[in-house]
Amino acid sequence: MSTQLDPAATEARVPLSRDRVLHAAADLADEGGLEALSMRRLAQSLGVEAMSLYHHVRNKGDLLGGMLDIVYAEVEPPSGEGDWRSAMRRSAISFQQVLMRHPWACSLLGSRIDASPTRLRYMDAVLGRLRSAGFSADMTHHAYHALDSHIVGFTLWLLPYLAIAQQQPDYAEHFLQELSGEDLPHLSEHVLVHMAPSKPGDVGEFEFGLDLILDGLDRLRDAASR
User: Fold this and answer.
1) Distance (Å, rounded) from C-alpha 49 to C-alpha 39?
2) Rounded to the nearest 5 degrees, what angle is found at the Cα of 50, between the Cα atoms of 49 and 53?
3) 201 backbone φψ class: left, alpha, beta (φ>0; ψ -120 to 50)
4) Rounded Cα gap, residues 61 and 44, in angstroms
5) What is the largest CA-CA distance in the chain?
6) Does the domain spanning 72-225 belong to CATH 3.40.1190.20?
7) Residue ranges per domain, the chain?
8) Model confidence pLDDT, tens digit, residues 12-69
9) Which residues, including other chains, have CB under 8 Å from residue 76's CB and lie 6 or more apart?
10) What does the CA dihedral 169, 170, 175, 181 come to, rounded to 10 degrees?
11) Which residues of the chain are modeled with pLDDT < 50?
12) Number of H helices, E strands in the chain
């Protein structure tokens, strides 16, 4: 005769650790955003009392910082071998894909949370790859911020549109119908391009902007070396 196990009781039997707490918190935020995350709900998801969490995280800020550490651990740092541009491109695409898997992370990147060790190592790897590619310290500074701004800024721009598309799948069609009565032919054309199915070889908006930045940096690097 089989017996049903209570999931909360099963969870409670697994020893609590900082890693387990942080991953559970990230899962809650993935499902419902940061507004769904509280110490009480986190404790409930782990089958423990809320006070038990403070043996592993000092406070909410420490919890959020640790969650960011998990995010950065998923990012592919730029390889130190081969073409610098290809290495930076792969890393940037990896970073943007990770942010899309954890959309709550974008809002934390500019907050006053202590930088996590993994985040610092990622930043150092990017800066080091640019320096080893021949960029000066000043140009590396500008290049890093141009790339980081594109990755985070594009994701912050995209997330609300994806939320609207999930809630209203026919939003673009309705928007286009509203434009039909206005003298806005170029905007209507732009919406149609958005709605068109992608074709083999198409480059997405993120990669298009990323390639513009990398191409421009490559030209600047070459010009500086002459």
Assistant:
1) 9
2) 105
3) left
4) 19
5) 80
6) no
7) 7-57, 72-225
8) 567 899 999 999 999 999 999 999 999 999 999 999 999 999 999 999 999 999 999 9
9) 90, 91, 94, 95
10) 180
11) 1-3, 5
12) 12, 0
Q: How many CB atoms lie within 10 A of CB 213?
A: 18
The tokens 């999931």 sit on which residue?
Answer: 7
| CA within 13 Å, CB half, 58 | 6
Given this model, what pLDDT does residue 2 score? Answer: 46
Under 8 Å between Cβ of 107 and 155? no
Question: Tokens representing 91?
Answer: 């890393």
Q: Which residue has the tokens 């191409």?
A: 215
Q: In the CATH scheme, what architecture does the domain 7-57 have?
A: Orthogonal Bundle (1.10)
205-214: Cβ within 8 A, 24+ apart:
205/154, 206/93, 206/96, 206/150, 206/154, 206/158, 207/93, 209/150, 209/154, 210/89, 210/92, 210/93, 210/147, 210/150, 211/89, 213/146, 213/147, 213/150, 214/85, 214/88, 214/89
